[in-house]
UniProtKB/TrEMBL annotation:
GO terms for biological process: transmembrane transport. GO terms for cellular component: plasma membrane. Keywords: Cell membrane, Membrane, Transmembrane, Transmembrane helix, Transport. The keyword Transmembrane applies. Its main location: membrane. It comes from Alcanivorax hongdengensis A-11-3. The chain crosses the membrane at residues 62-88, 109-132, 190-209, 221-239, 304-328, 430-450, 462-479. This is Binding-protein-dependent transport system inner membrane protein. It is found in: Cell membrane. SUPFAM superfamilies: MetI-like (SSF161098). InterPro entries: MetI-like, MetI-like_sf.
Amino acid sequence: MTGRAVNTTAARWRRTTGFLALLGLIAWLCADLDIARASPGAELLRVAKGFLAPDFFATEQLGQALANTLAFALQGTALGAVGGFVLAMLWQHRAIRGFAAAIRAVHELFWGLLLLQLAGLSTVTGVLAIAIPYTGIFAKVFGEFLEEADPQPERALPAGSDSLSRFFFARLPLIWASCKAYASYRLECALRASAILGFIGLPTIGFHLESAFNEGYYDQGAALLYVFFILIFTLRGWLRPVVLPLYLLAAVLWAPPVYSGNWQTLVRFVSHDLVPAPLREGHGLAGLWDWFGMLAQQQLWPGIWQTLVLGMAALLLTGVLALLLFPLHSPLFGNRASRLAGHGLLVVLRTTPEFFLAFFFLIVLGPSMLPGILALSLHTGAIVAHLTGRFSEQLTLRDDAPTGLDRYSYEVLPRISPNLLAFLLYRWEIIMRETAVLGILGIHTLGFYIDSSVAEFRFDRTLVLIIATVALNLAVDALSRHLRQRLRGDGAVPLPAGSGG
């Protein structure tokens, strides 16, 4: 690469960084950052005492909740992987890509809220709330694996080989290992999703965790969180391909995904409840326009604005935290003990779901945007810091390179900044997706209005608001993809599988 090209690329990513930083600063100025608790320090001390002395025997249904969490995650991931694999085989069709993008843009909790109206607090609700968006996610990832696979083995097959033979004998073997690795990672994500489905009433570990923290039993809540951490941290130990069919069979036997509702309920929900009220009541297009205008003024535009503000503020803080935290995982800084401790911290932060963190900060700080910003930034900042630290392993420093702060500022930071920015852009759409769903906790994003409309049984409003979240996520994803393409000449390495979780 010539010196002029290097300068052009550097200027391009600096402008992009400045643009995003400016948007983030504006968002911080517009955000509601009030601390509503009169004495957050005292509440934090009570929480700390609970985490230091967890009560593992207070929750009588802990085993059942843990089994439900596993059952929903295993079945949801399996269904999502099968559905995504089928869609990936047709990935060349634009309609398939659009369908996959639409279903994965709706958060698991929003799917859960809709499915609750049809199947109630059942296994079907828990499994499909995970399986539907995961189908879109698997389709995208598997489809990209197939697109990037080496075409030479397929060309070497005998002339006249049918398409199925070409796929199963020439293409699938090339991507099978990557598909298995990604499915394992996605199961970890599904366990987190299954846990937080408890916040809408499903009998997973999140249901008991919410109850314990809301009632001030922090020792019980801490025990539940520790059990969840153990489940995630030991995943590689107990998740073996040879026993996976047995786990899946046990999950189906424990919680059979059988729909026991009335199919007429489903028909009525689709053909009546989701239809805008003016059309149901015969007010025509004029009434529909007035209805939409009222909804847009009272809920849609405020929800979109607040979602953007919270998401952009979180993106800025995520970048700052990633810059501060990546040395904890980089072999270029510290020693073995410090890196081990830093790695442990990053693992805990990126393993804890944003929803759990936001719920915790809401208890300590009270309702505002601040708990959501902190939760998203800590979780995503740990992920970006981990990925950036891994990238820094590829850097080779000269023998007389400085140490300490000079090494960070002058040797490492300029070389990892383009990749860190690429990781941030890749996570941007995920931050916005999680921002919207934090409204279920009472933070005034789009999810707040979606949850309110469901509670009021105004599902026509729910549908419009969910479509708005899909459109917002797709727009942010398109902008992020455009910016990444412009920065592609900066030498950034391909993102590892799972960085988009």
